[in-house]
Every structure is written in structure tokens, then in C-alpha cells.
Amino acid sequence: MADEAIRVKVVCRVRPLNEKERASGDASIVNFPSPSCVALGQRMYTYDHVFQPVSTQVEVYTTSARPLVKDVLSGYNATIFAYGQTASGKTHTMEVYADHSLYRTVCSV
Ligand SMILES: Nc1ncnc2c1ncn2[C@@H]1O[C@H](COP(=O)(O)OP(=O)(O)OP(=O)(O)O)[C@@H](O)[C@H]1O
């Protein structure tokens, strides 16, 4: 199927370990064998794109949401939703404008 005909895209964002997790000595078991792949031990999961813990809000917005904003402004419908277990970073990813460069990016679409 041609890429433009694929109407649903799934991206995965892996958040960094938080302070509490680091303080308890937790270690990440997630590996990134390719830009679209997450590995948990022997299990591999493939997505349209994978954002590693170092990814920024700007990177996530630019890759995932910005094209849809353009489509919506052209009169098309689009939906973005976040799915994941509690504290996995859904709110952070959807709502946190942590730096001013993102705001500029949003404003300039
Ligand atoms: N990419 C990230 N970089 C830094 N901190 C993050 C990131 N993603 C999430 N966090 C932090 O992890 C914590 C949990 O994130 P968040 O509240 O977004 O999770 P959630 O999936 O919305 O949780 P819930 O389902 O319980 O509402 C927050 O303190 C948030 O600031």
C-alpha cells in the first residue's frame, strides 16, 4: 500500500527513567535496534517511528503532529491520541510545552 494511503500511524515514545526509579537503582531494559523498532529482551516491536528517551517535545511534535495540523488547516479531519500505562508519559507528550522553541514551531505550523 502506498504510504499516503495509510491513514493510521502509530509511534512509540519511551520516557527516561525518573528520579525515583533512578534512586531505587532501576535500569531500563529497552533497546532501540532501529529508528522504528523497540526491543524488550528478545521481543521486538515495530512502529512507524520510535522516540527514544532523549527525544524532545519539538521532535515529537514535528514528526507526529505537525503534518496533521497542516491537514486540519486544509479542511481535513485528524485525531491524535496517546495510549499507555499510567505514568508512561501521555500527558507530558500531549501537553507539555517545555521550551519556547516548540511554541514558535506550533505558531508557525
Ligand atoms: N519524555 C519525558 N521526559 C521527561 N519526563 C517525562 C517524560 N515523559 C513523562 N515524564 C514525566 O513522567 C511523569 C509521568 O508522566 P505523565 O504524567 O505524562 O504520564 P501519564 O501517562 O499521563 O500518566 P497517567 O496515565 O497516570 O495520567 C511526569 O512526572 C512527567 O513529567
UniProtKB/TrEMBL annotation:
Belongs to the TRAFAC class myosin-kinesin ATPase superfamily. Kinesin family. GO terms for biological process: microtubule-based movement. Keywords: ATP-binding, Coiled coil, Cytoplasm, Cytoskeleton, Microtubule, Motor protein, Nucleotide-binding. Pfam families: Kinesin (PF00225). The keyword Magnesium does not apply. GO terms for molecular function: ATP binding; microtubule binding; microtubule motor activity. PANTHER family: CENTROMERE PROTEIN E, KINESIN HEAVY CHAIN ISOFORM X1. ATP binds at G84, Q85, T86, A87, S88, G89, K90, T91. The keyword Zinc does not apply. Gene3D superfamilies: Kinesin motor domain (3.40.850.10). It is found in: Cytoplasm, Cytoskeleton. Residues 7-109 form the Kinesin motor domain. GO terms for cellular component: microtubule. InterPro entries: Kinesin-like_fam (IPR027640), Kinesin_motor_dom (IPR001752), Kinesin_motor_dom_sf (IPR036961), P-loop_NTPase (IPR027417). This is Kinesin heavy chain isoform 5C. SMART domains: KISc. It comes from the Eukaryota.
